[in-house]
Each structure stands twice: as C-alpha cells, then as structure tokens.
Amino acid sequence: MFAVDKFKLSVKKEEKNCGIFEIGPLPKGYGVTIGNAIRRIILSSIEGAAVTSVKVNGVKHEYSNIPGVMDDVLTILLRIKQLAIKSYSKDAQKIELKVKGKKVVKAKDITLTGEVEIANPELHITELTESKAKLSIEMQVERGAGYNPSDEEMRGQVGVIPLDANFSPVTKVVMDVTKTRVEQQTDLDQIKLEIHTNGTVAPKEVLEESLQLYNRVTKRLVDLISGEEEQEETEKKDEKPDEAPSSDLDIDKLNLSARLTNSLIKAGYKNLTELEGMTFDQIKEIRGLGQKSAEELFDIMKSYKLEVKESTS
Questions:
Q1: Which pTM value belongs to this model?
Q2: Distances in Å between the alpha carbon of 252 and those of 239, 249, 260, 268, 269?
Q3: Which residues contact 290 (CB under 8 A, 6 or more apart)?
Q4: CB-count exposure of residue 233 (10 Å: 0-12, 13-18, 19+)
Q5: Residues 258-285: what's their mean pLDDT?
Q6: With 0-12 CB in 10 A as exposed, 13-18 as middle and 19+ as buried, what is 61?
Q7: What is the tens place of the pLDDT at every residue in 146-184?
Q8: Which residues contact 295 (CB under 8 A, 6 or more apart)?
Q9: What is the location of CATH 3.30.1360.10 in the chain?
Q10: Class assignment of domain 1-45+170-228?
Q11: Hey, which CATH number is domain 243-313, 1.10.150.20, 1.10.760.10, 3.30.1120.10, 3.60.140.10?
C-alpha cells in the first residue's frame, strides 16, 4: 500500500540559482510518474518576466546598424532577450537604455521602474566605439508563463520591434530516479530534482509553486469524481451573488499562490475576513509578503467584496 506519511522531501542544496531536492521513499514506479509530472509543471507553468518588444531610436527594423555601435541591432536584441528580469506588476512596464560616448554597455545601464529588477546587471549588451555615438532603446516588460511567440501585429506601431519571449525563470530541471530501501524493502524509488533558475526566483520557491499547481489539479479531479464539484456549484447558485460564506474564505481553501498562502498562515491569519478594513500599506507590512503578493491579496479581497483601503490617507 502507498503510505503517504512515509515519504519525505529534503533539501540537499540551496543556492540563489540552483537547488537540489530529494523526494522519497516512494513505491516502485511512482518515482518516474510523479517526478516527470513535477518537472513538466516547473518547465511550463512558473511565471516570470521578459522583454516583449523594443523601440530603438533611429531604427526601423532589426536588420540595421547604428553608427558608432559595435554590434548590429539583431545582436543587441539577442542579448536583451538574455536579461533576467523580475517584475512585481501585472501591468506592462517600460524600461529604457540611454547611453552615449565611448562605453561598454551593460544591463546595469538600463533605467528601471520601481516594479522591475534585473538579476544579471553585468550582462554585456554592446559597446559604443565613438565619442559621438548614441544608443537609445525603449523596452516593454511583461509577465507570463512559458514561451510566447512575437506579436507581429505590433510592427504596425512606428519603430516597434516585437520579440519572442521565454518568460520562465527556470533555466534547467534535471530529474533522476534512483533506488532506495527501507528495512527489507529494496525496490523503492527516490526522486532527485535539480532546479536551476536565472536568479529572479529561488529554486525552492519554484518547487513549492509547482507542487501547489500539482495539488490543485489532483484536488479538482478528486472533487469531480466524488461529485463535490457539482454540489459546490449548486450551493453557489443558491447563495446571494455578492456574498461569500466565511468558511469559503479560509486561507488554506482559496487558490492563492504558494508564497501568499504560506505568508498569511505564518502571520497567524486563517480567514480572509480577518484582513478586512486593512490598507494596502498595512497588507504590504505582513512578513514575507512582498509587492507582488500584496497586489494579489488586495485584488482578491476586492473580488470578495471585502472592505479594503488604497492607503492610510
């Protein structure tokens, strides 16, 4: 029989860009089944940020050269696609690169908004080789998951060059299943997951988020097969449209992000109604929340018609 309380998840290595985790012991055959599912979720569903379009001053298309700039525009764009970007905003953000004179241009020369960070500031962009050379690039940063092809319709805007984008902050996931034993059982499985990121998110957070997604899918399947899903839908129809039962607002029952759920529970909150009447600034002060999670919580509270205030003023 599959003893759920017997296997463990242990952290073998934890660094900014790399983490190694082990899950086991698992029954024979479960290692590959569960490990592959987690790996695919990590590679396809973890949200990140990337540059989706640029506007280079004085340039109409990517097959151009800029006087006094060592690299052609296409080479510069390929390097911009290597930026490790973290965005705390759900809305698109504009960042700018404006440099002049002889200079080696790096990612740290980009002017950012308060909602955007770059995890690899030393990334080489290009080099200006003449004292009168100028380079001005406006970049649009968006959030998303997985790979997104370039939006060619954006070329209708003068000077805009669309870029395809890989939003995932995960650069590599290596999954290996080895044999382990417990007492006389020698054919048990153990999963080893090695997760590499671009530095915008910790590997442990990536694993935690992917397991939350995995849990949502399996929980919904259980609800569907048991008929609980249909029962919940019937109950919702009988409720008043603008009201949500307090029991439905339990933190651990809502489909919140892993980070938000854990932060609220650790802070002692069990139900969303306990936060009613707080301001956005007060929400941000909850330990471990951060700008992104605070915005998520603020929007969710408003969707449930709970009283929230924009600021203390």
A1: 0.69
A2: 21, 8, 10, 12, 10
A3: 88, 259, 284
A4: exposed
A5: 80
A6: exposed
A7: 898 988 888 777 788 999 999 999 999 999 999 988 877
A8: 88, 89, 90
A9: 1-45+170-228
A10: alpha beta
A11: 1.10.150.20
Host H or E run for residue 294: helix 290-303
Q: How far apart are CA 139 and CA 112, in angstroms?
A: 10
- Here the tokens at position 92 are 């698109």
What is the chain's length? 313
216-220, 223-227, 292-296, range with greatest mean pLDDT = 216-220
Alpha-helix runs per DSSP H in 67-202: 73-80
Supply the mean pLDDT for the chain.
85
Least confident of 45-59, 101-115, 237-251: 237-251
Are 94 and 144 a contacting pair, CB within 8 Å?
A: no
Q: What is the pLDDT of residue 240?
A: 44
User: Where do you find CATH 1.10.150.20 in the chain?
Assistant: 243-313
